[in-house]
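Records of this kind hold a single protein each, on a pair of labelled lines. Below, a sample record shows both lines together.
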Amino acid sequence: MQLIAKRLHEKVTRYNWTGFYLIDPADPGYLVVGPYAGSFTPNARIPLATGLCGAAATSGQVVVVQDVSKDPRYLAGSSLVKSEIVVPIFVNKQLAAELDIESYFAGTFTNSEQEFVEACANILANYLSKLH
């Protein structure tokens, strides 16, 4: 996870924060920040019913917001963030983690960008499924 977060942050200049949130093993009603790379400190703990990460977790669907200022679900990590994508990662049909990417540019996550981010999340999902 650390390698994926670091590479995406370094190689895709529009990705200003890239990281993972994991289901809290002590309290599965929360997501806790995992490995990340970026220009600000993330929210360390997020209830499943809160924010875009919570929306992705509870729906099991990818959440893409091209302008976070227009989405009341957005839970600010930085006032500079303009767009965000959250991809849930399932292992054995259970939510295990999420890949969360935030950008200081509105409209970053086009269809091709979404496909790319989903492919990155699938690499991790496949890896994790082999561990269980």
Remarks:
- The mean pLDDT is 94.
